[in-house]
Structure formats: structure tokens, C-alpha cells
Amino acid sequence: MPSVTAYRDFRRAISRSIAKKNIITDPLRKVAIGVDASFYRLIPQIIVDVESEREVQIVLREARQRRLPVTFRAAGTSLSGQSITDSILVRLGRGWDRCHISGDAGRIRLQPGIIGGLANRQLAPFDRKIGPDPASIDTAKIGGILANNASGMCCGVEQNSYQTIDSIRLILVDGTIVDTGDARSVADFRLSHAGLLGQLAELRSTILADQPLAEKIRRKFKIKNTTGYSLNALVDFEDPVDIMTHLMIGSEGTLAFIADSVFKTVVEHRYKATALILFTSMEDACRAIPILRGQPVAAAELMDRASLTSVEEQPGMPPFLKGLNSAVTALLVETRTNEEGELASEVARISESLADFTTVMPISFTSIPAEYQALWKIRKGLFPAVGAVRQTGTTVIIEDVAFPTERLAAAALELQALFTKYRYHEAIIFGHAFEGNLHFVFTQDFSSPAEVARYRDFMADVVDMVVTTYDGSLKAEHGTGRNMAPFVEKEWGPTAFALMKRIKELFDPDNLLNPGVILNDDAEAHIHNLKPLPATHAIADTCIECGFCEPVCPSRDLSFTPRQRIAGRREISRRLAAGAGTAALKRLTGSYQYPGIDTCAADGLCATRCPVGIDTGKMVKALRQEAHGPLANKIAAAVGSRFAPVSRTISRSLDAVDLVHRYTGTPFMERASSLARTATLNRLPLWNREMPTGARKISPQSGGSAQPLQVVYFPSCASRAMGGPSRSENERETLPEKTASLLHKAGYQILYPDDLDRLCCGQAFESKGFADESDRKAKELSTALLAASNDGALPVLCDTSPCLQRMRLTLDSRLKLYEPIEFVLTFLMDRLTFKQKETTIAIHPTCSTRKMGLETKLLELARACATRVIWPQDIHCCGFAGDRGLSFPELNESALHGLAEQVCSCEAGYSTSKTCEIGLSLHAGIPYRSILYLVDEVSQPKWC
């Protein structure tokens, strides 16, 4: 074990070239950041976020000098423990997200920090995609996809990472950079590393001279196999450079760092049809697989009865899942084509091929996107379904094995028998039928030696069954990792295992790159360093730490992500349960405050990606509430009860500040506000140049006869207090004025709730953890809107999406509540004439817009108004979070990193939240305003 001094010297050495903020040694942050999606836990000594190839070289150089192990991390969605370490953890920081698509879209160059789903969105206009399609594709990054030889539900073994890699750029442990797609780089490498390439050639010759071994390698890679190194590279390729390229696929960071790659892209078909076919038994379902292989089937997903049972009670599931016989087994079958006219004939061919089978229900395909997406929801919901019902303190384990397809049924039945033997009664089996690949999911308690022994014995029997009985793969697509490393030799035999050890020695002679992963001499490594999951908070206890939430978190590049917030809380709970002293706990909670609580936007987008639906923002709000003392709650209650004068004070203060801004100028204001904030130790909110003015008081018109068209308009408190323009804004009307103008144009009579100035939905109080006052304000608003709308007879428009979403969750269900996008599309499109403006605009769906499923509706509305619309889809949340962008402006800045470059060609941007628009305008370089401004600009009454 390296000494503390070695790590201290390493840190000192790299800090000369790597920014201090990118070198992490805080104990709590190391625990929180160090987790991955597996059931193992190791705490790194140092975490380094690298932002360039040069920084990777520096880390490797200094680590080699001190014999310090290094582990590379992309997204940390690894299920087998291959992205954790107790030494140096190197994460991809910013600067690894460039991509380039070739002229014919047949190739795409991708840096390792790009998320797989984003690469596919870049390719979508060309009807292309990358080959691998893991379930984690919207979180997993290209570096990890390559390092684990990821495949997925549709790519099979023909389109996985190994088969579709074209070239790769590597940084070896000695710091050498080689790009196998660059002739000059390859030529230089052949000279500098002739010995390594020569020995790779010798290994190939050794295998080819051993015919049984060569045949074994070919046979084992006909099905999915990620156990050990990709020995097929030594059989499939003659040039040592090609061998090296393909050995890196599935090497799990144990041979080199992947700095860049070029994929061969594959076709993304436009037309699809899907059927859930219910067979009466596992044997029948498996007997159908070779038949379906001969048909135009793109995917065939197998699910046992326990799998279907695990999701049958979830919303949106087909009712026929309930009451099925215990032996029923399903195949989710999909066919695809680029010719719409061919889809029906393909469906007919597939259905006819299964005519001799007895199915529980008639085979029925659907080509309606909403319907086939609902069927795929069954398959995608299996893993989280088990995770959601597990007991607190247990973990979810997902393993994946593969068998020759002709023996799949027998293997599945034997696996089910092992579940019974070892009392895993909640276990489910599903998988990719064409590749003989089965995933099995179960819950495991590691809190006692007896439970650990149960898991150990179960896995011993699984290993024996897979290897000895069926000659299958112990790891089909999740990578060897730590949990199968002790069994690689058992699967491959001593000769092939010796070759793998030789490969490791060639590239990493000092065993510094991710040691213990893939090759491990410890026969019980799979039951060491098991991750504890103590209870920490009712909202978060079902978290399985998969990391799916991370790409949409606005603080992901600043502080903690939702996964890390939960992992940090678990560590505090674990220390508390272990009897940690008051001083130690105080240090931990102090370390948690800024990254865990202060910089959480609490936007709830994490719940939209979480497999078990956890809204970490709700946990943070609850923690904020717990931190409030009696005085804080009294102040909140006082503000709520005197909301009208408080709101007016805010409005007048904004006007006063704007007046100062007018006479002193922006540079002075920025310097003065920065100095004031520094002097108050960052407690004073930071003024910025996009700060709005106050809105003029709304004076509802009274009297007059009722008109046929009426709407209740509730301007949010943000619109009422700060709905005026900033000094740089060309639009001078306030949002309430603009909304009223648009409604009158459409022929609506506007009704306002009584005592409007005192009303608030409670959002501002809830986000700060004042739950009681937020609920009281919501109840007050509900009463007022019911009265104004005649008990819900009239529609209610709120001009701010976040407020509207909260209103839907908390107000009386009789109210018909609409935010701006919905209201315009539902009520105004037929009453107004739209003339598209010749311009390029940007849109930003707010967090609440996304959670309400209205992001594509915003795009639809924007396209009705402007000739070109840009939607930066990788900007998920602006991070302004009400007023948090003023108190923690770095959150807003980090969340909008890269926005300016994406919208630089736009005239203006449009959204549906005033506070979000402040932050967007500040960091985009263009003004952002409510979409209602644009609608008003391009529309005229139809009767004109």
C-alpha cells in the first residue's frame, strides 16, 4: 500500500499544472464522488478532474514515479465495480465533449466525455446512430462505452463497440499518445514501440498455432462476452496496431486512457412496429428465438413471469399483465425499416413464422409510437421495479450472463431453480434473446456474514452452471469488473488466462492502471469492499446510485450531483450510526452544506431520469426545513401574511437599483456589488446587469358586461414584483401588460382573483424549506382562484411555468390550470393569425416545462412564430432556481456553460419563467423573455 507521503507528494507535483479546484481531497467529497453504480465501495485518496490530454500525461507521469495506482472514470454507470478505487481516481472534467460527423455521416469522431445519447442526437438528422445502445446510453459516456465494450438491446454482437470502432486515440501509461486513425502517429508509434507491437504479433501467432484455443475464442465471441480481455482481437486482425485498437475495447481502463475515438455509424430506421408476445412457457419462448432470427426482427427481449409481475402494478402498464400463469414468458419483438410500405409485410412475415406456437393472446404489433413506447416501458422498467421495492439497507444486484442460444431455455430454468435454492424469491430474469444474454436482478443484504456467505455460495453455483454446464459467458455486456475478476481463469482456462496476463504486462508492466479489475488473484475479491447503503432519508433510501440523474443536474460541474448528495448523506448517517463524535459529525455536515444543500437547484429534473423516481430536490428542501429554527419560520410566516407590502417593496427596490444603474453605469454596478458581496462573506446576493425593474401595479377593470370568452389571469408574484424589463432590454412592456395585451387581442375578458397582490403559489417558500408557509399560501390561492373561476368553470392562466406546476400539485383539482405554452396552443391558435418572423430564435424549456412534458410543445409554438428555432438540448436547467442564482451565481454560470456558443446566431431567446430568463440573458449574450412576447409580436386577431 503506497504511503500517505507518496500521495501528498503526488498532489503537490500535479498542482503545479492542474487547477486547485480540480484536485479533490476533502473526505466527504471523496466518498460522495467516489461511488459508482456497483455494489462495491472504495474511497479514493485523491480525485483529479482532468481537462486535457496534457493533464492526463501529467497525472500518469507523477503516479508512475511514485508507483501509485490510477483509475479512470467517465460517467460511473459501471455495474461491476470497475470505476472505483482506493488510490487516484481520474475523472473526465470539461474539455472532452467535442464531436465531428463525416460528410456522409458514416463516421463520427467522439471524445470520451460525450454522452452516448447526445452522439445519437447529433446523428439523428442523418438517420444514423452509434452501434452500442446500452440502457444507460443517456448517461454513459463514450469513454466508458468503449472501455466496457457496451452493447445493449438492439445492437447484438454485430454492432457493439468492438465491431463499430474505426480508430482510437490512446494515452499509454508511459505518457505516449498514439492515434490509430492518423498515419503519421501510427508511423511514429511503430518506431517508438516496436517491441510492444512485435509481442502482440507473437501472441497472435501463438494463438493461431493452437487451433483448439483459436476455435474456442471464435466460438465464445459468437455470443456476448465481456469476460476478460478481447482475445478475439488477436484472431480477427493481423496488423498489431489493429489488434491494439480492439484490445482496448472492453479493457476497462486497465491498459490505457481512451482520449478520442472514431465510430462507424449504423442505420437508425424511421419506421418501427413492436409486439409483446406471451408464450405459455420458457421453453416455447426460447424455441421461437431461432425462428425469429430468420425474420426481419431488430430486437427480441425475453422476460420471465417474475419480470412481468414486478411492473404490472406500475402506471401505464397493460392490464393483461395481471393474472398470467406463473410459467408465461414474454418476448418483446420489434421490426424496423426505412420504407413505410414494408412495415406491414414484415409484421405479417413475423406473425406467420410463429403460427405453430400457442400464445396466451393473439400476436398484435403496433406501429403507433405512444403504444410501442409503452411496451418498451415494460422492459426498461424491470431493473428499477426491483430496486424500488427493496428493503432499506439492501442493494440491488444485476448480473448478466450468456449461453449458446440453443441451450437458453434450460439455462434460464436452472437459474430460476438457483433463485429458489438460495431464497432470492424476488429475482427476475430478462435479456437479449438473440445473443443468449440473460440479466438477472435480485436484492441482497450485505450487513451480516451469513448474508455475504449466501451471496458467495449463490455466485459459486452460478459460475459453475454458466461455465461447466453450458460453456457460456460469465459477463455478457457489463464488463468483468471486480465481481467476476476471480473467475476469469475458470471461464477461459489457464492458457487463455496466461495470454490475458501477458497483455496486461505489455501495456502496464507495473500494474498501475485499475489494478484488481479484470485480473485479480484474490479468489474472494467479489465479496470484499461491499458498499453499505444505510438509511439516510425516506425520500432517498431507494437510491441505487446508478447515476442516471447526473446529466440533467445543473450543479454537476460545480459541486454535487443528486447521486453524490445521497451518497454524502449516507456517509453522514453511517458515521452517526457508528458513533462518530460530535466534532467529526460537525465537520462532515459542514463539508456537506455547500455542495449538498446550498448549490442544489432543487428543480426535480433528477426524478425524470431516476429509475426509481427519486426527487433529490425534495430531500434537499426537507433538509433545509430541518435546519430552520423557530425564528426563521416566524419570519417566513410574517412575510407570507404581509405578502402584498413585501412584494411592493421588492418592486420599488428594483426600480431604485435600476435608477442607480442608469446613472452610474454597468461597470460601476458590477464592481460595487461584487465588493459588497465579498465584504459580507458572500451572504449578500450578487446584482447583475440583467436585473429587471419592478412591474407596474395591476389595476383590474371592474364593471361592464360579461363577454363570451373569459379567462382568469394569475400573474405570478415574480411577474408582479419583477416583471419589468432590464436596462438592456428593448421590450419595455412588463410581462403582465404583455399578457393582457395578447389576451385582449384574442377577444378574452380578463378576470383577476381578488386581493391579487397578497397571493402566491408558495413556490418561493417551498424552495427554501418553509413547507408550512408554502402550503398556507397555496391554500389561500386555491380559494381565491375558485372564487374567480366560478368553481373551476373558467380556465386559469399563470404566466410562469414553475408556479403553474406547483399549483397543479397543490391546488383544488376542480381548477383548470394552464401555463403559457398550453394556453396559447389550446385556446389562441384558432383565434389568432400567425405570421412567422424571419429570424433565428432560441428556446429554453424550464425544469417545470420538462416535468409537465411540454418541451416539444414549446418547440411547436416557437416554430409557429419564427422561421428557425435553436434548442440547446444539453442545457437542461438554467440553475437560477428562483433567487438562488443571485445568492449562488456560480450555480447559474456553471449550469449554462456553453450556452452562448450555441445561441450566438439568435436574435433572442424565449422561455416561461422570469427568474430563469434573468440568468439565461446574463450568460447567453442575447435577451431572453417570455414566449408570450413573441406570440404577441407575430399574431393578429383573425377578424382583422
UniProtKB/TrEMBL annotation:
<dbReference type="Pfam" id="PF02913">
    <property type="entry name" value="FAD-oxidase_C"/>
</dbReference>
<dbReference type="GO" id="GO:0004458">
    <property type="term" value="F:D-lactate dehydrogenase (cytochrome) activity"/>
</dbReference>
<dbReference type="GO" id="GO:1903457">
    <property type="term" value="P:lactate catabolic process"/>
</dbReference>
<feature type="domain" description="4Fe-4S ferredoxin-type">
    <location>
        <begin position="534"/>
        <end position="563"/>
    </location>
</feature>
<comment type="similarity">
    <text>Belongs to the FAD-binding oxidoreductase/transferase type 4 family.</text>
</comment>
<dbReference type="Pfam" id="PF01565">
    <property type="entry name" value="FAD_binding_4"/>
</dbReference>
<dbReference type="GO" id="GO:0046872">
    <property type="term" value="F:metal ion binding"/>
</dbReference>
<keyword id="KW-0274">FAD</keyword>
<keyword id="KW-0560">Oxidoreductase</keyword>
<keyword id="KW-0408">Iron</keyword>
<dbReference type="InterPro" id="IPR036318">
    <property type="entry name" value="FAD-bd_PCMH-like_sf"/>
</dbReference>
<dbReference type="InterPro" id="IPR009051">
    <property type="entry name" value="Helical_ferredxn"/>
</dbReference>
<keyword id="KW-0285">Flavoprotein</keyword>
<dbReference type="InterPro" id="IPR017900">
    <property type="entry name" value="4Fe4S_Fe_S_CS"/>
</dbReference>
<dbReference type="InterPro" id="IPR006094">
    <property type="entry name" value="Oxid_FAD_bind_N"/>
</dbReference>
<dbReference type="InterPro" id="IPR016166">
    <property type="entry name" value="FAD-bd_PCMH"/>
</dbReference>
<protein>
    <recommendedName>
        <fullName>D-lactate dehydrogenase (cytochrome)</fullName>
        <ecNumber>1.1.2.4</ecNumber>
    </recommendedName>
</protein>
<dbReference type="InterPro" id="IPR016171">
    <property type="entry name" value="Vanillyl_alc_oxidase_C-sub2"/>
</dbReference>
<keyword id="KW-0411">Iron-sulfur</keyword>
<dbReference type="InterPro" id="IPR004113">
    <property type="entry name" value="FAD-bd_oxidored_4_C"/>
</dbReference>
<dbReference type="GO" id="GO:0071949">
    <property type="term" value="F:FAD binding"/>
</dbReference>
<dbReference type="Pfam" id="PF13183">
    <property type="entry name" value="Fer4_8"/>
</dbReference>
<dbReference type="GO" id="GO:0008720">
    <property type="term" value="F:D-lactate dehydrogenase (NAD+) activity"/>
</dbReference>
<dbReference type="InterPro" id="IPR004017">
    <property type="entry name" value="Cys_rich_dom"/>
</dbReference>
<feature type="domain" description="FAD-binding PCMH-type">
    <location>
        <begin position="40"/>
        <end position="268"/>
    </location>
</feature>
<dbReference type="GO" id="GO:0051536">
    <property type="term" value="F:iron-sulfur cluster binding"/>
</dbReference>
<dbReference type="InterPro" id="IPR016169">
    <property type="entry name" value="FAD-bd_PCMH_sub2"/>
</dbReference>
<dbReference type="InterPro" id="IPR017896">
    <property type="entry name" value="4Fe4S_Fe-S-bd"/>
</dbReference>
<dbReference type="InterPro" id="IPR016167">
    <property type="entry name" value="FAD-bd_PCMH_sub1"/>
</dbReference>
<keyword id="KW-0479">Metal-binding</keyword>
<keyword id="KW-0809">Transit peptide</keyword>
<dbReference type="InterPro" id="IPR016164">
    <property type="entry name" value="FAD-linked_Oxase-like_C"/>
</dbReference>
<dbReference type="Pfam" id="PF02754">
    <property type="entry name" value="CCG"/>
</dbReference>
